[in-house]
Amino acid sequence: MKQRCFWVTDSDLYKKYHDEEWGTPVYDDCILFEFLILETFQAGLSWITILNKRENFREAFDHFDYKKIATYSESKYDSLLQDSGIIRNKLKIKSAITNAQLFIEIQKEFGSFSKFIWSYVNNKPIINKFEKREEVPATTTLSDTISKDLKKRGFKFVGSTVMYAYMQAVGMVNDHTTDCFKHPSE
Question: Which residues bind Zn(2+) per the record (predicted)?
C-alpha cells in the first residue's frame, strides 16, 4: 500500500488529487486560475468540500475560463448565488469575477500569470523535507509577501494561508512529507 501524506483520507477523490495533482508544478495559466478560484472558495472550509464540488464549480464558472468570468454580468452573478452545487458566498463569487479581471491585468504586465507567480520561487519548486504534520506551516514569509502583493493589486480572499495552500497545490512548494511516496528522493 502506498504511503501518503498525513492529510489524505480514505476518499478515492482525495487520493487521486494527492497522487496526481497536489505538489506537481503547474505553469499553465488556465490551471493556475482554476486553483486560484478553488483555493479562494476553500477559505474557511475543508479542501474535501471543494474537491467534492469541483466539477460543479467547473460547470458554473465556464470551465474556469477567466476571460469569460471577467465579463460576468449581474444576472450571471445572481444565477451563481442560486447554484446549490457551489459555495454560495456573495463575497467569494464577487471575488472570482474581480480576481479574473486582475488575473488578466497581471498577464498583460508580465506576459503570463505563470511568469508572475513563479518568479517568487525563481521558477523552480521549493522542496521541503518535513517529516511530521506539525512541521508543515500554514503560512510562510513568502506566502505573506505574495498575499500582500496580490491584495495591493486588488485581489480578494488571498490571505497568506490561502496563498500557501495555493503554492502547495500548484507545486511552487513541495510539501509531501518525507514518508510519502510522492516526496522527491535525492
Answer: 5, 18, 176, 180
- 135 contacts: CB under 8 Å, gap ≥ 6: none
| pLDDT tens column, 41-86 | 998 899 999 999 999 999 999 999 999 999 999 999 999 999 999 9
Give the position of cell 486588488: 154
Which pLDDT value is given to residue 186? 54
Catalytic (active site) residue 22: no
- Using CA atoms, how far apart are residues 121 and 73, in angstroms rounded to an integer? 36
Q: pTM of this prediction?
A: 0.95
Q: Which of 7, 27, 47, 120 is catalytic?
A: 47
Q: Which secondary structure element, helix H or strand E, spans residue 55, and what is its range?
A: helix 47-60
CATH number of the domain to which 36 belongs: 1.10.340.30
Among 39, 72, 164, 166, the one annotated catalytic? 39
Query: By residue range, what is the domain housing residue 41?
Result: 24-174
Q: Catalytic site residue 7?
A: no
Look at residue 125 in the predicted model and tell me its pLDDT.
96
Dig out the grid coordinates for 174 from the structure.
513541495
Backbone angles phi, psi at 174, to 5 degrees: -105, 105
